Amino acid sequence: MQDFVQLWVYLSATPLFGLTATLVTYVVAQAFYQRVGQAPWANPVLWTVVTLSVLLMVSRTPYPTYFSGAQFIHFLLGPAVVALAWPLWQRRAQLAGRLGPLLIAALVGGATAGGSAVAIGWSLGLPVNLLRSLAPKSVTAPVAMGIAEALGGVPALAAVFAVLTGLIGAISAKYLFDALGPFTPCERGFALGVSAHGIGAARAMQVHPDSGAYAALALGMQVVLSSVLIPLLARLF
After folding, report:
1. CA–CA separation, 222 vs 211, rounded Å?
2. Taking each helix axis from N to C terminus, what angle separates 185-207 and 155-180, rounded to the nearest 10 degrees?
3. Cα–Cα distance measured from residue 23 to residue 6, given in angstroms and rounded to the nearest whole number
4. String of b and e for 67-82 (b: at least 16 CB within 10 Å)?
5. What is the pLDDT of residues 169-185, one digit of tens each?
6. Per-residue model confidence (pLDDT) at position 32
7. CA atoms within 13 A on the CB side of 124
8. How far is CA 19 from the centre of its chain?
9. CB atoms within 10 A of CB 162
10. Which pairs from 228-231 meet CB under 8 Å and 24+ separation?
11. What's the whole-model pTM score?
12. In 2-90, which ranges are continuous DSSP H helix?
């Protein structure tokens, strides 16, 4: 027992703690996710976040200490997003003929996602800085933080809202699609990418290759459109 305590003290004070805890937790969550047939409620990202949060609170580990190791995984977020271009390249001929309708769908979907959140928050009397942090909630977290900062919002809150949006979308999408009617994998994937960004795209890729490709396209469109349009609309309203 004494050896275990000494090992814990050593690991918790080094970057190895954050890296090891994240990898082990995600691998276990992913194995459970596969075991239950990839059920949406068992999303490995959700349960990894929950488990790590509990672990940090119970062990009283400061977040900077944890992130000093987890930053190595955080760095891989950039290459992972770039890698989403490969399934798009494989379907470039198919996508070229649908670019116009997809662009309109991305505009309408993004405006609905961000506008509805701001409208609900405004009706509830939320402070202005919270409304500005809510506006980019359906954009991937790093971009949402930059947009929120440009609007005068709180980047950290924007990241939280973005992650929550992605998790809720990834968990509830299947049930919503099944309830609303039959949709093709392409339609499901694009809708998920518009509303739930990277986490939704990851879920779509696990379900069907076409869903993943269209989710990645929607994610990219939302990044470009939101980065340009949300600041312009904020100046108007």
Report:
1. 16
2. 120
3. 21
4. ebbbeeeeeeeeeebe
5. 888 888 888 888 788 88
6. 92
7. 10
8. 20
9. 28
10. 229/110, 230/114, 230/135, 230/136, 230/147, 230/151, 231/147, 231/150, 231/151
11. 0.76
12. 2-12, 15-35, 44-59, 63-75, 77-83, 85-90
Q: Per-residue DSSP letters for 109-165?
A: HHHHHHHHHHHHHHHTT--HHHHHHHTTTTS-HHHHHHHHHHHTS-HHHHHHHHHHH
Contact between 211 and 192 (Cβ < 8 Å):
yes
The pLDDT assigned to 198 comes to 80
C-alpha to C-alpha distance for 188 and 212, rounded to whole angstroms: 9
Which one-letter amino acid corresponds to residue 1? M
What is the torsional sign of CA 66, 68, 70, 74? positive
By CB atoms closer than 10 A (0-12, 13-18, 19+), residue 135 is buried
Widest distance between CA atoms in the chain:
66
CA dihedral 63, 131, 134, 65 (to 10 degrees): -10
Q: 83-108: b or e for each residue (b if 16 or more CB lie within 10 Å)?
A: ebeebbeebeeebeeeeeebeebbee
Q: How far apart are CA 43 and CA 182, in angstroms?
A: 23
Window from 39-53, 57-71, 79-93, 189-203 with minimum mean pLDDT: 79-93
H or E element at residue 206: helix 185-207
Residue that has been written with the tokens 């399934």 in this structure: 87
Give me the phi and psi of 69, to 5 degrees please.
-100, -40
